[in-house]
Amino acid sequence: MHTQSIEHWMHDHTFGQDRRKRGERRTQIVIVITALTMIVEIAAGMLFGSMALLADGLHMASHASALAIAAWAYYYTRRRAGDPRFNFGTGKVNSLAAFASAVLLAVVALIMAWESVERFISPVTIEFNQAILVAVIGLLVNGACLVILGGHGHSHNVPESPFAGNHHHHEHGHDHNHDHEAQARHDHDSHHSDHNLLSAYFHVLADALTSVLAIFALLAAKYLGQTWLDPFMGLVGAALVVRWSWGLLRLSAHVLLDMQAPPEMARFVKQAIEAEGDNRVADLHLWAVGPGIYAAEITVVTSTPDDPDHYAELLPHHLPLVHVTVEVHTCPSPAPHDADDGTF
User: Fold this and answer.
1) What is the signed CA dihedral for 312, 315, 317, 323, rounded to 10 degrees?
2) I need a labelling partner for 27 at 20 to 30 A (CA). Which of 88, 277, 300, 334 fits?
3) C-alpha to C-alpha distances, 34 to 27, 49, 62, 95, 170, nearest whole angstrom
4) Would you say 56 and 138 are in contact if contact means Cβ atoms under 8 Å apart?
């Protein structure tokens, strides 16, 4: 066997994780802004006696830590992308950091709720003018940070896009696709599936929400005498943050636990292979190995077997599959169609 032919079958598993992500530099900028604002708000909250403002500052403190986790994850993912100890690259570090940030987000929400209950029991005097001013400043800072992060989602859900991106085959016959246009599309879709960036976005969004609630509560307390709204808004903010935290925990856990890719992707794969001859997909596993990228293991049963490369080439090229393994088994007669939905 020639050396050249061996090299044809060899490949790395970086899958683009060695490149600097768009969210990395943005996250670093937001960390600096958040840390400075955090110091101002905590000091002002303690000085002026506003629970809503203090809660906003506490959010800043926890979120600065969470953003630091996100920045570390980007750095580690990039530096260790070629480490052979990671079977499918370092893409899951992204979701691991997001999971840790989501846990921290939930803890902060509980602290907010506890502090708010204490303020219900033991109210304190509030310096309204100073507190409102600092809360407005905090909201402006949070708004700027959201813009810097790129308005990650137009909704509060991860905009998963499993049907667009580059398509690299690494199966028993490896077909390396290094199309630059496809890679650019993949980078764009990875941005939208970046759980690490989403966690940073949620942390800043929680800060912005708390600032809005603080302003509303302080204005109502100052002009309407409704001082109970100050701690109540702390409870409202805590409830919303818990909801966001739970959603992020679920999304990142799906990747960490190698849960199946969206059923639509499985159907595309199954239909593409079974559209030819008497091919039948006997087993199919699709799972995420990084932001917006997936791996696949496919078992094909057919009476007219072909090279694994052939079946991999049948897959739609708009699917973001970066590692495909095809196993082919010969069946003496055409295998009957089953009535399943394409998931296993």
Assistant:
1) -50
2) 88
3) 10, 21, 10, 22, 42
4) yes
Global confidence as pTM: 0.68
> In angstroms, how far is CA 326 from the centroid of its own chain?
29
Residue 107 lies in a domain: yes
CA gap 273, 311 in Å, rounded: 6
CB neighbours of 28 closer than 8 A, spacing ≥ 6?
Answer: 71
Whether 343 maps to a domain, the answer reads: yes
On whether the CB atoms of residues 11 and 325 are closer than 8 A, the answer is no
Residue 308, domain CATH: 3.30.70
Question: Is there a single domain that holds both residue 243 and residue 342?
Answer: no
Please state whether 179 falls in left (phi above 0), alpha (psi between -120 and 50) or beta.
beta
| Owning domain of residue 116 | 3-158+193-256
Which spans in 10-50 are helix H? 22-48
| Residues 230 and 264 both lie in one domain | no
177 C-beta neighbours (distance < 10 Å), count: 13
Q: Are strands 293-302 and 321-330 parallel, antiparallel or unpaired?
A: parallel
Last residue of a domain, one of 210, 234, 256: 256
Nearest by Cα to 210 from 105, 296, 307: 105
Q: Are residues 231 and 317 in the same domain?
A: no
Tell me, rounded to whole angstroms, the distance of Cα 103 from its chain centroid. Answer: 14
